[in-house]
Amino acid sequence: MILSILKRTFILLVLFSLVSCIDINGVNIFPNRKDDGVISAILNGDQFEVESGKGILASEHVIAEMENRADSFLLTVYGIRVKDGGKALALGFKIGGKNLEELSSGTEFNEWNLIENSEVNFEGAMGAVEMRNSVKSKDHLFQASSNHTGEMELLITDIDVHKKLISGRFSFSALDEENGTLVEVENGTFDNIKWEWI
Description:
By secondary structure, the protein is mainly beta. The chain contains 1 helix and 15 strands, in the order αβββββββββββββββ. It folds into 2 domains: 30 residues; 164 residues, no CATH class. Strands 5, 6, 7, 9, 10, 11 and 15 form a 7-stranded mixed beta sheet that branches. This is Lipoprotein.
């Protein structure tokens, strides 16, 4: 009886140690999710955190898309979390400018302006928070932007253009001019966000 229990315990310990170390073709089956990209902030006093790499059925996603044109670039990063009741809350920002290669660790933004001699391309950073009835809904409960307050701070703490990775900190005030919703975004961070070229 005791020998049987010891055998089972030994087998379980061996299996646990094997499973916790599984690595297939260089991919850890149980990766540290924080390495996959995280956006977090305090929204009007409530914690918001979204991690990427959770799969298509997850209740949260991080999306990062980079447009690199001959005369400008635009990086759009946002996290979406499905709340209780199916409502979708999104937090994100845009970083734009003339030359992507000029971005480096320590670059700061606090404005969002049209690039000189352009009618459609911007430089600087802009933040936004949006709530919809569902992820697929086109109608929003509010759509607040730092454009309407002029209050935006974003600092790049790390960037690797070749690996398509960016990290940094941000804070902003976002206002929905239609319904008056004001969202204060504090202590925002984005870590190891990997963008896709579009």
